[in-house]
Structures are given as structure tokens and as C-alpha cells.
Amino acid sequence: MFDNLSGRLEGIVKKIRGKGRLTEADVDEVMKEIRSALLEADVNVTVVRSVCNRIREHAIGATRSKALDPGQQVVKAVNDELTRALGGETLSVQFSSKPPTVVLMAGLQGSGKTTNSAKLASWFKSQGRQPLLVGADLQRPAAVEQLRTLGAQIDVPVYSDPEDPILTAHQGLEEAKRLGKDVLIVDTAGRLSIDSEMMEQVRLISGAVDPDYTFLVIDAMTGQDAVQTAEAFHETLQIDGVIMSKMDGDARGGAALSVKEVIGRPIAFASTGEKLNEFEQFHPDRMASRILGMGDMLTLIEQAERAFEQHEAEEAAQKMMDGQFTLDDFLDQMQQIKKMGSLGNIMSMMPGIPKELKNADISDDDLKPIEAIIRSMTMEERTFPKVINGSRRQRIAAGSGTQVGDVNRLVKQFDEMQKMMKKMGVLGGGMPGGKKGKKGKGPKRPKGLPPGLNLEEGGMDIPGLPGTPGMPGIPGLQR
Amino acid sequence: MGAVEIGLLVLLAFVFVFGVGVVVANRRGGTALPPTAPPVERASRDAVAAKSGTILEEREAAEAEAEAELDEAESDVVEVEPEPAPGTLRERLAKARSTFAGAISGVLGRSGITDESFEDLEEALLRADVGVGITDELLDGLRAKVKAKEITEPEALLDGLQEEMASRLRGSDRALNFEARGDSEPNVWMFVGVNGVGKTTTIGKLANQQTIDGRSVLLAAGDTFRAAAAEQLNTWAERSGSEFVRGAEGGDPSSVIFDGVERAASKNVDLVMADTAGRLHTKSNLMDELKKVRRVAEKGAGQVTETLLVIDATTGQNGLIQAKEFNDATDVTGVVLTKLDGSAKGGIVFAIETDLGIPVKLVGIGETIGDLIPFDPDDFVNALFER
Question: Looking at CA atoms only, how far is residue A275 from chain B in angstroms?
Fold first, then answer.
């Protein structure tokens, strides 16, 4: 009942996967399931209807063709349609020729506008821009203070005037010009789309700054109402893009799909966690794969590239294959991974992570004891864990504030992992290109899936993980 | 896709899964780490903050987020004049175009009951976030009645659905539970929910009503996480003439609630309303924190007689999972459905009531202090069917 959309679709596909040919009755049954799955994911009713109609056409086509695996064709149809419905391309922000580029933030109460204003400012900074934040939410007492606190954290100035939100917005624009800032982000108060007075206010704010981009912030947990809200705001403000907030919860994100389809504007950004850097550009093709359970490998790789020093990573990967990966290297890599964002977030993007692990809700702090243990080792111990004897163990445990048993377990598991990696290195033999993923056959591969990742089922069984199936083969390849 | 990316990816997978594996194994192994570093059991966020600079930043960021989301939800209310002018659900919902209007005119526009009639109704129910399961059940019941000729006219079809929906919600005890206890043994009402749903506002409105009803009330600012939460609650305390207890910002929420109960007991206050920080139900460390708050609230002279889950009416099917998780953690006794004055219909409460048996006790229908009213199933369903 609480299966997510990808879980549901996987189940459906399993049902029809074995069939040589699909009958129309099969298609009907599949469509019913897909429809419920989409509705339970909060995809808007109207959108579900149109998406389903298109998938059905493809699926019926599959019954007529003598394709080897009609199940795969249905999966492909679903994937294509979801991608299409989510919008083809990532929104690329064009900067105004006459700076500043003005961004207006709008949305319902509690959707997360203020936080996302700051996150967006931080994103612009990472793009080499110099943003100015404007607090035009004078409705609630602490809003501007809030924005100032966030602004201080990311080192972005905040302008506000307690008199009037429209005046504030206007003066903020002048201030940005005076200071030579090239991006202006205007935060506004939360409002109900049916509150005509407040909607008029935001229209006037918009008029005062003439924004290049107007972003609507929508809570990922929103149900069918997302469409009504988006339509109403779009009518008043001409929305250019949507920012989906609270994507780190377990909401299935149907709202994203619906809003794009109904107002014809893309989801521009997604907020994926509580840290100010847990905010990324939204990639529709990747999101569809994510919904389908193929993980979001492209995003992951991109984040990795950003965080890892390339040659270091290459070196580490080589060491790993050669079985020369030491605890010290492990510590290094842990630090790199931490730069990529929270573990839970990274985990959600990795395909094939056992559900048990995903549900374990690992916080970054959980890795601290491991780190402490390794840090309490000498270089020799990190390189050759075999030298760790009883007294060294006690010293390490005392030094790291853990128990001897913890130290033992870590050393043992690391040893097993090393052995297995050696095996993998031999097995992989330099990771040849996809041996199973023949081109032009089977479902469309998600673009981000590296060909070398055709690992056999259970091939990456990680020792020390009782009761988990390790990392099963990466889904999305030939089934 | 070059060799480097592949290497990176494999590396990542290994390091990551290994790291996580050790954590999980340690946890399962039961060899508890020393009390200085068991991050999972220890849920208090301030302890995390004290550890290092990086974490402090995280905490601040997180704090900021929570604050932003919550504040947005609750802000407008603070400025509002405390004029208790209780509205009615019907008045408030009339502002929003009825989700059912199209379906109703569709059904009534046909001379008989056809498949299209059912399709219209299905769409309306789904649009109101009632969910696929309940919608199917409702319509299957109606189809059977039509087949048995119990329902023959379009008008009767609508009445039948309306009755079926209302009857599903009838019969629950929706009164707020207050137990007559000793003089220095206060009742404790706890408020929980995800970020941005309107917990603090709900407490403010309810404190006012309870004071008018003659109970002495103490508000405990258990949301120590976001900066302005305590100040905001304090405003409500002043407005309603309630006692107020707060702790240090970033302090342990459990101890604030405990202090609140102690203070209430010593001053013979009848009722403690405990605010908590908004949290996503998927963050298990924060849910553990909430369990602890609930436990500690009963450590002294107090007894938790209500745990109210606040849910935003715009919430979709995820609301059921929220309710389930919060119920597992804190034994939720009732739901407060907020922001019902917007265009959202809050249909998720059918699933929450049916599947989890948690009654909706209150609805928030506006921004003034009187805009929190008891939930009435018939009014709620009638408002949907406003013709």
C-alpha cells in the first residue's frame, strides 16, 4: 500500500515481463495499475488521463508488433511519457543584458519560499554571480530576520524596508543597481491563491521589479490542489518555473508532473534537504528515471565530479581494483562523499540500494564513530590493518571513544571488503563496456547509466550487512 | 561515459555502501556505542551542534529551513486582531470554486444514471484528494445500489454519495479529551506534524478558546529549533492570557515540556499545550526525539490526554503516511486539518480516518483567532457538495 511509484511500476512490469505477447486485456489491466499508481503518487487526474491515453496507444502498438518482450515496450512507453510530461529540457537561466537579473519568489504559506530564496542565492553565487536578497514578506514578523540569518550564512546581503512590500521590492532593485549586484531575488509572503487582495499585492510587487524569472515554490507533498494553485499564480504572475521543496521526504512527487503539464512551465529547481546546498537544478529526464526506480545516476556523477578531485578519484579507483585500498584512502573518500551532500540524499539517487538500507535513515553523524576509529590509528595501522593486535585495539578504542568490539568489526569488515574488491578488479578486468546492454534493443537505457555497471545480480554483496542482498544489479538494464 | 566516471561510480558505491553497512551492522549488533557518540539514539539537535563547526552550520541551515517553513504558515495570524468571530465551513469554502461543481452539473445534466455519471463523480473525488482506494469503495457501493434499483435518479445518486461519505466519518468521538485530575496534575496536549502545516497557530487559536471556556492554560515552547518559534508562541500566550514556558534556543525540547508541566503543576494550571518543531516523518532521529518528548511529558505530574497531528489540507496521499508515522511514534489521538479555506479539499482525512481510525477533531478555516472550529462530518461533506 505504501509502495512508491517505482515500486508499483516494477510490480506491473514483472507481471507482464514473462509474456511473449500482450493481449488487449493485458493492456487494460496494466493501464489500470499504472493509472492507480500515478493517482496515488498525486499526479493530477487530468494529467493522468492524458498520460495514460498516450501510454495505452504505445502499449496497444506493442500487442500488434511481434516484439520479443512487450513488457519492456510498456516500460519504455511509461518512461518516455513521464519524461515528456515532466518537460523535455532543464531550464537554463538566461541572465539579463541589463543587470540585475530579477527573480521573484511566490507561493502558498509554508511551502518554503524564504529558505529557497536563500538556496537560490547560494546557487547563483556558485555560478559566479553576486546576488542581493530582498525581504518583501512583511506579513510575518520574523520573515525578514529569517532571511537575514540565512543571507549571513551564505554571505549574501539582504535588503528590506519595514514600510511596504511593494516599496521594498522597488527600493531593493535600486539598491542592487547601486551596489552593482547582478542578481536580485525577491522573497514574498505566503498567500492563498483564492485570496484576491493578497494576489493583487504580489501582482504589484511583480510590477515594481519587472522580474526576469518568477518562480512558484510548491511543496512536494501537495496533492491535487497543486494544479489549481499553479494555475491561479500563473494567471496573476506569469510563472516561469517551479521550485519543488521538501523533496527529501517520501512524497512521490506527482505534483511536479502535473504542474509542468498544466501550466506548461518547467520545474526549474528541486530542494532536496535541509542544508543550504541541498538544492539542485531539476532534470526532467532524470526525474522520470528516478520515478521508475533507475536511480539518478547523472546527478550523482555530476555531484561526484564537483566534489572529487579527478585524479585522486582515478587513483583511488585503481587502488581499489588492485586491492591496495587502505583505510586511509577510505577515510579520504568518505570526506569527499560528505562534500556531495547528506548521505540520505546520495543514497536516494543510487539505484539498487536495498530498501532496508534506504529505510535505515543514515545520518551523517552515524559515520562519525567510523571516522574516529580510523583517525585513532597510526599510518601503519591504516595501511596494514593486520598489525592491529589486542593492545593496539584497546588504544584505538580508547582514542576514538568507542568499544574494542567496534574496532574489531570495522577492521574485519574492511578486510572482507578489500578481498571482494580484489575479486571485482579481476572480474571487471578494466571494466569493459556494456556486455549485456546491446544497443537498439530492449528499453531505452537511462542516459546516465555507465556501460561498465553491468554487475551481476548480487555480485556486489557487501559483507557485514546481515540480511541485506547487497547491491543487486543496477536496474534499468536488460531484465 | 569514460573510464573515470565508471571508476568514480564504483568507488562511490563501495565506499558508500561499506560506510553505511558498518553503521547498520553496528546498530544491529547491539553493542551500543558509548553514550558520548550514539548518534541515532541521541536525537537532541543541540548536542549535534556542540560537536563541531560544520555541524553547527548544518543545524543553523536546518533551523532556518524549519523556521522559514513554519513561519510562513503561521505568520499572518500573529498580526491579526484577536477578534473571535467563528466562521462556518460553508462560508469559507464558498470562496473556492467547488471541486464537485462540475461533477454535480454533469450528473444532474443527464436524464438517467450512466457510466459517465460515475466517471464524473470519480474525478471529483480524486480531485479532492480522497484517494483511489476510498473512491473505488464509495463508487462500488453506489453502483450496487443503482443495480439493485435502490437509486434510480441522478439527484438520488448525489445524495447517496454524500450520505455514504458522511456516514463513513460519523460516529467517532471528536471531543478534545480533558480528564478531570488533581489540582496539580495538569492535562498535556501535544502538537506534532511536518514543517509548515501550522502547529503554532493552531495552539494559539486553541489556547484562546480553552481560556474562554474557563480553563487555565500554559503554553510550552517545545519548538526550540527555529529562532522565532518561542517568540511567536509567547505572543499567543499573552493574547490568550496563558502562562508561558520556554527554554534556551536550540535546547532540549523534552526538558522544556517537562519544565512546562512542572510549572503548571505548581501553579495549579489545568492544561499544558506543548508545541514541537516541525519534522519530516522520514527523519527517524527526529521522530525518536518526538517519542522522547512524549515520554518525558508524563514523567512528572502531567498526563498526555491529547496528541494532535496537524495536517495541511493541501497535502496529497502522502498525508496518510505522515499520519501513520506520527501515530507510530506518538500515539496520535486526533487530527487538526488546517488551511481548509484555500482551494484544497483535504480529502486525505477519509483515508486517515478509515485506515488508521484517527478522528479529525478540529479544522482551521482562516487566519483570525476564531477560525479554528470543531470538525463536523456533515458540514464537511455538505461543503464539498455545495450546489
Answer: 5
